[in-house]
Amino acid sequence: MAVQRANVAGGATANPLANGESSAATRRPSTAPTAAASALSPPTSPTYNAHAAQFNPRLILSQIVSLQSFHYVVLGLIFQVNRLLFGTSITMDRIFTARYLDIWSAAGWVDNAAVLMSSFVGSLLLALIVEKSKKCLDFSVTLFIIHVILCSMYGGFPATWDWWIVHVLGMISMIVLGEYFCSKRELSDIPLLVL
To answer: What are the distances in angstroms from CA 64 to CA 4, 58, 69, 113, 146?
Structure first.
């Protein structure tokens, strides 16, 4: 094409066949990308995928499921320890109903402490599973909402102030401590290989 323009500018004919060029050379499409096309398309490097780095629904769903599962495993283990130390019964009602949560009695504080301790362990799990401090609020609130839904399905909507006070305090501590642990992990030095 540049040859044709030079020929036209120099007074030669615009017909490539008249100048002795083959017809295959004139029909060959240009494979070089234009500047406009490269500016609109994302980089095609196999290691770079900006959209996948921001939103990966499978990763988010697996993080939610693992966080929720570990939360209930930890809560169950704490209730096992409470059974050994305080002789409390082990039932699903302790996890999914408000029957045993009471902020005005010592027996209620055994279960209150279990819920708050599981929130502390949940903040450590946020640092291990989620790894980003800006996502701690989202994952903690999601865990709390799923817990409220499961509690409502198991034994009815929690209607006592004690249940709400303990779980909201646990959620707040999980958010704050989770953001702290995640930020400590994000800001830690990257070890260099010493040769």
So the answer is: 63, 10, 8, 24, 10
Provide the token pair at 153: 């399905």
112-155 pLDDT per residue, tens: 999 999 999 999 999 999 999 999 999 999 999 999 999 999 99
pTM above 0.85, yes or no: no
Listed residue (55, 54, 151, 166) closest to 174, CA to CA: 166
In angstroms, rounded to a whole number, what is the distance separating the alpha carbons of residues 135 and 122?
14
Which stretches of the chain are DSSP H helices?
Answer: 2-9, 23-27, 35-40, 50-54, 57-86, 93-96, 106-125, 136-155, 161-186
CA 94 – CA 154 distance, rounded (Å):
11
Chain Cα centroid distance, residue 41: 26
Cβ atoms of 182 and 131 within 8 Å: the answer is yes
Q: How far apart are CA 97 and CA 152, in angstroms?
A: 8
Backbone angles phi, psi at 22, to 5 degrees: -80, 155
Q: Could you report the per-residue pLDDT of 144-191, keeping only the tens digit for each? A: 999 999 999 999 999 999 999 999 999 999 999 999 999 999 898 888
